[in-house]
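Feature request, filed as a ticket because there's no other form

It would be nice if the structure record came with a short human-readable summary line next to the tokens. Right now we just get the raw output. Example of a typical job, pasted below so the devs can see what we mean:
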Amino acid sequence: MFGLHYKLERNTIGFALAVIVVAGIGGFVEIAPLFTVDETVEEAPNMRVYTPLELAGRNIYIREGCYACHSQMIRTLRDEVERYGPYSLAVESKYDHPMLWGSKRTGPDIARLGGKYSDQWHVAHLNNPRDVVPESIMPSYAYLGRAELKANDLGLHLKAMRAVGVPYTDEMIANATSDTYGQAMPDSTFSSGLSKRYGDKTTVRDFDGVAGQVTEMDALVAYLQILGKLTDAAYSPVAKAED
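Raw output as currently delivered:
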């Protein structure tokens, strides 16, 4: 075996051909499964898109680098399923551009964080993480509660998402700004039509606990509370861990 390798090293053309053959085999193994992607990716007919407020929160999550410490992909290992819930399915990230699966876990995986804690818990955690998790090394994001959310360009954000395949309608894009205010201010006139456009399960409430304004804290908490809840595909049937 080693003798063949030594001979190839001395033969430029032979060595080049061997590299091409091996690279071709590796490339085929990587590329071939993509031709069956439509058959292997699960379907989720009940999948809903992010609301403008949730999408704004996702943008803030990316801007602040939260993905560097928190993954959003539960693997099919028993200990992960027992700790975090059903393992992640490809279809759950179909509207994520870019995807935030990750592999670095300075903090826990948050793929199924939505609904696990109250809004008040999230606000307290973001203001001073050690108030709720004493051993946390996460920095404070209290300034998000003082930063007014810029919402007048969210229609363009939705339009950009539609360009890469997210099925936002013209009505959703046209009402993006008003829907943003409506989701965080349930008693305002802006909230009318939001459920019709995004579904009856859309959460409409004051996320940061400060009435009368929509902050970046509202947006980020709204995003965190929807993680793992855009579809229930992973629960039907309930995903089981591998040994």
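Something like this underneath would help us a lot:
Residues 1-35 form one domain.
The radius of gyration is 23 Å.
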